[in-house]
Amino acid sequence: MEINKFIDHTILKATAKKEDIKKLCDEAKKYDFFSVCVNGANARYAYEQLKHSDVKVAAVVGFPLGAMSKDAKVFEARRAIEDGASEIDMVINIGALKDGEYDYVENEIREIKETIGNNVLKVIIETCYLTDDEKKKACELSLNAKADFVKTSTGFGTGGATFEDVELMKSVVGDKAQVKASGGVKDLETAKKYIELGVTRLGTSSGIAIVTGLESEKAGY
């Protein structure tokens, strides 16, 4: 299992400096992670660090609350792609979903997907704030809007990914979209369990620990 290729190596904290982004990118190249995931303001710098490698740049949009206007999210997504990102991780409008404004939520996702075209769109539904029925609905709306992934969490909410939420999300999207687990994925055992449940991407700042754990396991340590 090439577990490194499941990993979006992530730094989204407010205090991240250029040296932190460079370190993230250097680590991603060293361990051949699938991508780095950064805030939009750092997308161009990350792209410059990675343009001669296979590592992609993912940028977050509407992060971490999802509670800004649709137009602001669309602009943010477009700018991130122009700056070199090839993947967008957007936060839905959680309040709108809970209000039953399903057309709004679906149209927001669809408009961002149309804006970024063939680039990958991951829809963060922030499971910690949702009932099971709301989680299912968010996944259905994401499918309707042609999103590529549904994603559990920002890592900034009251909780991160859980095995139960991933199973629920996978039961809705099947093979029509992929699932990303994010928030609290810190070790090899947890990562492997998510992959067994059908996750194809892991958002984590603990990618090195996960990969080195696998190397130790192979070596029989």
Characterise the protein shown here.
The protein is α/β, with parallel strands linked by helices and 221 residues long. The chain has a single domain (3-219), classed as TIM Barrel. It is 46% helix and 17% strand. The chain contains nine helices and eight strands. It has helices at residues 18-31, 43-50, 70-82, 94-98, 102-116, 132-144, 163-173, 188-196, 207-219, and strands at 7-10, 35-39, 56-61, 87-91, 120-124, 149-151, 178-182, 201-204. Strands 1-2-3-4-5-6-7-8 form an eight-stranded parallel β-barrel, surrounded by six helices. Helix 1 runs parallel beside helix 2, helix 3 packs parallel to helix 5 and helix 5 packs across helix 6. The radius of gyration is 16 Å and the shape is globular. The chain starts with 6 loop residues before the first strand and ends with a helix. The mean pLDDT is 96.
